[in-house]
Amino acid sequence: MIIGIDLGNKTRNSICVMRGEELLDWSRLNYADSESAWHHRKKIIKQINEYIKKYKLTKNDYLLFEEIAFYKGVSRMYNIVSMAFLQATIINEFSDKISISAVHVQSWKSKVLGNRSAKKEDAVAFIESKYPQVNLDIVVHHPKKGDEIIKDNDTADAICIGLYGSIADKKKLDEKLVNYT
Q: pTM, whole model, 2 decimals?
């Protein structure tokens, strides 16, 4: 089985559990519901632990997250550092429980969406078509503009990452292991 995680957003993180192409479970964790970044990381760890216990996952299963993409410019440095903390927390917590692999964003987009340059909207459309039981609508409240419905591309990405793990060659996943043990 595969746990797919989308880590790259300060607004929310999403986690899913896949058995082959079957989507077993998914969750959306909102940063705004946490007191601090530390509390948000603890919430993510708690959710992953619940999935590992619920589905009896072992080192024969995989937890996948995206590799950190480095771009020029200082504006993304906060995101890079935040993702690195989160990845290190996950690796420290789960290295002895499950195989952990980092996936390049273009790899999962190419394999799952058929286009390594696919956009967030492409992942949303794909997930809405393949997994109609997943509601990707999020209501965002703007104090001046009122409520707006947006699509949750983080959950779409997490499910695509999980699906990638289910259809990718195991050798490819093993090449990208980041476990400490």
A: 0.91
